[in-house]
Amino acid sequence: MNPVVEPLSWMLGTWLSDPPGVGTFPTLQPFQYLEEVHISHVGQPMLNFSFNSFHPDTHKPMHRECGFIRLKPDTNKVAFVSAQNTGIVEVEEGEVNGHELCISSHSISRISFAKEPHVEQITRKFRLNSEGKLEQTVSMATTTQPMTQHLHVTYKKVTP
Fold it and tell me: Boundaries of each THAP4-like heme-binding domain copy (predicted)?
């Protein structure tokens, strides 16, 4: 592992949602989802990730995103770069402190025919809890709604 990403090593592995994640938003019916997360490294000064969610009953694919997590050398500053199957590409920036990563959108771009309302701001918090499980909370603001929690999911590690 590149020593630059050592402060994020607690995120490495394959993680499965346990229990199913929960999604809410004022313009959506509440929902649940299963999610598989792969966070890996190939020796470069960044981590690679993919998030793949599925309907809990039908196992039909839902949301997908993949990208990179970079750490500014010799700091706790982090950049999270992702491309999503919804047509959104985003850069989030923030800080890692111990076993917690808090990031918020720096820039969001979308395809020209992305579904409205458009996402205007995103925040994420990842943390490794006392049971060794990874938690993720995502909040977002759209063109019609203020910043509101959207997703919460807890993952158990299935491979290192």
Answer: 5-157
